[in-house]
Amino acid sequence: QNLVNGVAYMIVYQLSSFQFVHSIYQSIQEHNLVKGLSIAHVFFMEVSLHSALFVALHRVKRFTTWRDIGSEAAFFHASILITMVLSLPKICDFCIFTTLSFKEFNFGNGPELMPNRLVTNETLNVLSDIKSNAVSIITLCVNSILVVLIRRERKLISEPLNGRLSVERRLVITSVVSYLFYMFYFINNALARYAKIRFCGYAQWMFLGIASITPFWCLIIFTPTIRRAVFKFRTTTVEISSVQTKT
């Protein structure tokens, strides 16, 4: 979700400033497709934010109820439903009140399009920000609880069970580390928006990129099964390409 969110953010807010796509974004604006792009980005952003919370809650549940398999489907469906409900205020804001457009500027090196947001309902915008901040803080607290649970399990679990839970522990570590890097982006973004720190405004693209790719590399580092699957797929692809070349 973080990677999709990062790509959507890049398409909506970053690529427009490059001259080689100037005509493409002009065409998008002329055909009134900007609102659809902004809504799609908001949807991916909200899903990424809330899915991080429910992944952390699922890990806590697995540690505290000893793998209650019977409630997995109910938890999954509830998480999807709550994610959609919590995403509605932000999506409604961009559907009805907030308008995204591209304004043309000339900085001496040719025309460039810069994204511009026009907010007509400040109340809904502030409420959406408060909700996002609350979800982020709750997710951070849940991940902190996970760290405590992992340390406690390491002391209490006997050696035979330790191997069975090692995969679960690696996935928990992946969730915690990934969200830690997201919190760096979240704090930097808050400083840029509310404290008006210019450096944080420029650096938010770097933190967004790191937060987007961290989950993938954490899975590669901490989860041997995924690592083997990725490199096995790569090896198989290379072998097939070699055979086709020889043929």
TrEMBL record:
<keyword id="KW-1133">Transmembrane helix</keyword>
<protein>
    <recommendedName>
        <fullName>G protein-coupled receptor</fullName>
    </recommendedName>
</protein>
<feature type="transmembrane region" description="Helical">
    <location>
        <begin position="37"/>
        <end position="57"/>
    </location>
</feature>
<feature type="transmembrane region" description="Helical">
    <location>
        <begin position="130"/>
        <end position="150"/>
    </location>
</feature>
<feature type="transmembrane region" description="Helical">
    <location>
        <begin position="203"/>
        <end position="222"/>
    </location>
</feature>
<keyword id="KW-0472">Membrane</keyword>
<keyword id="KW-0812">Transmembrane</keyword>
<feature type="transmembrane region" description="Helical">
    <location>
        <begin position="171"/>
        <end position="191"/>
    </location>
</feature>
<feature type="transmembrane region" description="Helical">
    <location>
        <begin position="7"/>
        <end position="25"/>
    </location>
</feature>
